[in-house]
Amino acid sequence: MHFQWYPGHMTKARRMMQENIKLIDLIIELVDARIPLSSRNPDIDDLGRGKARLILLNKADLAEERLNDMWVEYFRSKGYSAVKVNSKKGGGIKSIQSVIQEACREKMERDRRRGILNRPVRAMVVGIPNVGKSTFINALAGKACAKTGNKPGVTKGKQWIRLNKNVELLDTPGILWPKFEDQEVGLKLAFIGSIKDEILQTEELAAELIRYLNRSYPGVLEEKYAVSEKEDPYQTLREIAENRHCLVRGSELDTEKASGILLDDFRGGRLGRITLEVPTL
Ligand code: G4P
């Protein structure tokens, strides 16, 4: 399977990110807990040089708990602060403020030594499309916090959300573009729905997912769809189509529809908690 993906507007997004990064102390980078490496763009390490770094394994509810913990360890061993969160349900969000504080401790101490007191830490959320940036910002900021900046009569500027007296968050997240020279990475991004389905053959993608699941999560497909086939993923798709009564023209098996069902079930966590990447610690 071969595909390339680099939307033109990402060039603009990168420029904006570069400008915003100058204003902040801390980069809060969201990654997808199911593919913590493939959902990163390594360029952020360059863009964020000299800034405090916090990696959030978002959608942790969809990934395997044991591997979430391993990934947290992995990122910490590389020098990042790291925690797992579920922005949708709010899991792990409460503790984030103290994690932010901790991630910026060095910077705050440096400020204090220089006699700069009470300057809030400024942070920005970044991540690839659909990783949950807006959901996270909403979960963290809630309704209670006041926006600062852009007050009437004040020169137009960025919108900062005051989380508490120590931390302010830029209200617009930075969009990172997924990056893959490696087709495996592209495939994983497609599995979680980060790359538009239209540029890929749905059935081909579903077949690849079946191959992966048979290898790494044996029994999952059998349990969910009562399928028995293990060797030929296209035969598995036909069995899913049969069991789910996906038919075209009354009697032909609609494997395209079955592929959609499988991908939707995976993306929605209905196949259970599944992680597609394992860290090497
Ligand atoms: P973005 O700003 O980075 O582009 O992502 P956004 O917040 O729009 O979130 C993308 C999708 O991911 C949304 O689903 C959102 O609900 C879901 N999401 C975000 N965080 C989590 C999480 O921790 N766990 C789970 N399971 N899902 C999460 P959607 O289908 O677009 O919307 P909706 O059906 O949830 O309303």
What does this structure look like?
With 281 residues, the chain is α/β, with parallel strands linked by helices. It has eleven helices and ten strands. Helix 2 (43-47) links the parallel strand 1 and strand 2 (52-58). It binds guanosine-5',3'-tetraphosphate. The site of guanosine-5',3'-tetraphosphate has 15 residues, from helix 6.
**Category by helix and strand content:** alpha/beta
The shape is elongated
How large is the count of helical segments? 11
Name the bound molecules.
guanosine-5',3'-tetraphosphate
Distance between the termini: 30 Å
Q: What fraction strand?
A: 5-15%
> What low-confidence regions span 5 or more consecutive residues with pLDDT below 50?
149-155
**SSE pattern:** HEHEHEHHEHEEEEHHHHEEH
The helix content is 25-40%
The overall strand count is: 10
Average residue pLDDT:
88
- Gyration radius, rounded: 21 Å
Largest sheet: 8 strands, mixed
Which key terms come to mind for this protein?
single chain, 281 residues, alpha/beta, eight-stranded mixed sheet, two-stranded antiparallel sheet, binds guanosine-5',3'-tetraphosphate
Blueprint (SSEs and pairs):
Layout: H1 9-21, E1 26-32, H2 43-47, E2 52-58, H3 65-77, E3 81-84, H4 96-103, H5 105-113, E4 121-127, H6 133-141, E5 147-148, E6 160-164, E7 167-170, E8 174-175, H7 183-192, H8 202-216, H9 220-225, H10 233-243, E9 247-248, E10 252-253, H11 255-267
Parallel strand pairs: 1-2, 1-4, 2-3, 4-7, 4-8
Antiparallel strand pairs: 5-6, 6-7, 9-10
Helix pairs in contact: 8-10, 8-11, 10-11
Residues 58-59, 61-62, 86-88, 127, 129-135 line the site of guanosine-5',3'-tetraphosphate.
